[in-house]
Structure formats: structure tokens, C-alpha cells
Automatic annotation (TrEMBL):
Keyword field contains Transferase: yes
Source organism per UniProt: Arabidopsis suecica
GO biological process: signal transduction
This protein's UniProt keywords: Kinase, Transferase
Family annotation (InterPro entries): Plant_MAPKKK, Prot_kinase_dom, Ser/Thr_kinase_AS
A Pfam family per the record: Pkinase
GO molecular function: ATP binding; protein kinase activity
Name under which the protein is recorded: Protein kinase domain
Limits of the Protein kinase domain: 6-278
Length: 318
């Protein structure tokens, strides 16, 4: 990673850790103007920013993880004489997934787009988990949208790529040293899993539960737990968000897996990539990036999926 000669462009706004500003720079190989998002934090949040940079540095070149520029966290004095800490990252012209949904009528995305977005997020989680991390705060605001164009059948077609961002709350898989009685969970409560809320468990199952919340939110166009006054006590009893009745059957089965009460029953990102909700294909990313051999499902697994699907339909009818 090389240092960038950044020129201030505009100031998009505040975030929980500090602020994000848009900068532009000249690409070294051809002089073309490019853009970068610069995260800035005060001394109070510097530790989180350093941690995020260290984690992102391990994901250089990963297509589903937002990329970080530069050689480290930059310390500067602002115009008031206080020290600020900055890192430069890829700029997502599509904004967050939440921003992206707001641009559609009634925030409604097509079913095919939802499935493709889910696949991308699973690819990102597979990479994160393979490196031994748990994101801990997966939600639409922490998912970035990158518009692109694909040339197909003699015409340019608009497409979108998703990347996971905001690793300031990420933990090592199985880490318990962070836990405190007054702070029993790390992420955003309505996207957290029962075991992470009740006794601070940090594992890949947490991210898969959060993924289920994100997918459900895209379908319903509402925050998880929209049907009730959300209380942490409900989640600690292993209740899951309500599924709408018009949800496709394979989507229900997928979400049932994400919302399984036991973390191990949520499987893992690679296994979920094989579900019929994603058309049952083992995508090229899995074979190329993860280098994992995946065998076809046996008869027992197929029967189990059929039973789970039946249970899902019964649940949504109640």
C-alpha cells in the first residue's frame, strides 16, 4: 500500500466513530482522478480506528471487503490544535445498503437482486471467518454498494457489488476478554444473536444471525422486529423476527437456518452458499478464494431441508 496525495472534496457527515470525508487523488499509473473516503476520529476512538486498519490490512485484494489505502493510521493536528487520526479507504459511490434501498420506490429491491446481494455478503463473511474474525456489527449501514457496468449481449448493463465495511467492533472468533457486565454485547442490539446478547458469545454464528436480519430487512423494507416493541429479553429467549407470509419458501428455509437457536445449527457461510435460496450453485468465488472442496448433499441432507421447509411454512401460517 502506498501513500496517497489526497485533495479534500466534500464532507459527507458524522458517524459513530467520528466523521467521513470525501477526497480525490490522481492514480499514479495513468493520472486518472480517483476518490477515497477518509475516516477521521478523535483520540477517544483512536484505538478502534487502529484496530480497523490492522484488520483491513489482512484483507487486501478481497473483493467483498472494503479496501484500505496507505501504510498506516495518520496522526495530524486539526485547526483547533487537537490530534486527529485518519485512514483512507475505497469510496462507495452507491453509499450504504440502507442508502441504496432508500432510492427505490418503497425501498423494494427485486428478488433476484436480493439473492445476489445475499451471495455477495456470504462470500465476504466466508473470507472474514476464514481469517479467524467475527465482524460483530453486520447491518445495512455497514455494507457498501459499488455501482459498476457489465458488457453483455452487445450492451452495457448496470450492476452492483457489495462490500462489508466498519470493522471497528470486530473480534477474534471465540474471544471473551472484551465482555463486561455493563456491556454484555458489542454490536447493534436488533441485529445481535441470542447467545451474544445473553452471555457475550462471539462466533461466526453471530454474523450469520445478523445476515439473516439483513436479508429479512431487505425483503420487508423494515428493521428487524418491526412487528413488536423490541426487547432484549425476547431475543434472550431465542425468539426470532417474524417472517412475512409472502416470503419465497427457499428464502424462509435460508432464514430459518440463520435464526437457529443454537449457533452450530446456523452452519457456516460456505454451507449457506449451497442452499437452494442461492440456486444451489457453488459459486466461482468459493472454489477460487477459499480453496475448499464441497461435495454434493446426500439424501439425508436433502430430506432434512424438506422437513425444515415444511416447518417454515407452518411457522409463517401461525
Amino acid at each position: 500500500m502506498v501513500a496517497l496525495d489526497l485533495e479534500f472534496e466534500r464532507y459527507p457527515g458524522e458517524r459513530s466513530f467520528g466523521s467521513v470525508s470525501l477526497f480525490k487523488y490522481k492514480r499514479q499509473r495513468d493520472g486518472e482522478t480517483q476518490y477515497a473516503a477518509v475516516k477521521t476520529s478523535s483520540d477517544e476512538n483512536a484505538k478502534s480506528l487502529y484496530k480497523e486498519f490492522q484488520i483491513l490490512s489482512q484483507f487486501k485484494g478481497c473483493s467483498r471487503i472494503v479496501q484500505c489505502y496507505g501504510n498506516g493510521v495518520k496522526e495530524i493536528f486539526n485547526d483547533k490544535g487537537y490530534v486527529e487520526y485518519k485512514i483512507a479507504m475505497e469510496y462507495a459511490f452507491g453509499g450504504s445498503l440502507s442508502d441504496f434501498m432508500d432510492r427505490f420506490k418503497d425501498r423494494k429491491l427485486s428478488d433476484s437482486m436480493i439473492r445476489e446481494f445475499t451471495r455477495m455478503l456470504l462470500e465476504g463473511l466466508a473470507t472474514i471467518h476464514r481469517h479467524g474474525y467475527v465482524h460483530c456489527d453486520l447491518k445495512p449501514e455497514n455494507i457498501l454498494v459499488f455501482p459498476s457496468s457489465v458488457y453483455k449481449n452487445g450492451a452495457w448493463i448496470r450492476s452492483y457489488e457489495l462490500k462489508i465495511s466498519d470493522f471497528g467492533m470486530s473480534k477474534r472468533d471465540g474471544d471473551t476478554q472484551w465482555w463486561q457486565p455493563r456491556k454484555p454485547y458489542v454490536g447493534t442490539p436488533i441485529y445481535m444473536s441470542p447467545e451474544s446478547i445473553s452471555h457475550g458469545e462471539i462466533g461466526k454464528g453471530l454474523d450469520l444471525w445478523s445476515l439473516g436480519c439483513v436479508v429479512l430487512e431487505i425483503y420487508t423494507r423494515k428493521k428487524p422486529w418491526w412487528h413488536t416493541n423490541y426487547e432484549l429479553e425476547e431475543l434472550m429467549k431465542c425468539y426470532e423476527p417474524l417472517f412475512p407470509r409472502n416470503l419465497p419458501c427457499d428464502a424462509k428455509l435460508f432464514l430459518m437456518t440463520c435464526f437457529a437457536s443454537e449457533p452450530d445449527e446456523r452452519k457456516d457461510a460456505l454451507t449457506l452458499l449451497r442452499q437452494s435460496f442461492l440456486h444451489g450453485d457453488v459459486n466461482k468465488f468459493t472454489n477460487r478464494q477459499m480453496n475448499v472442496k464441497i461435495d454434493s448433499a446426500d439424501d439425508f441432507t436433502l430430506q432434512l431441508e424438506k422437513v425444515s421447509q415444511m416447518l417454515s411454512e407452518i411457522r409463517t401460517m401461525c
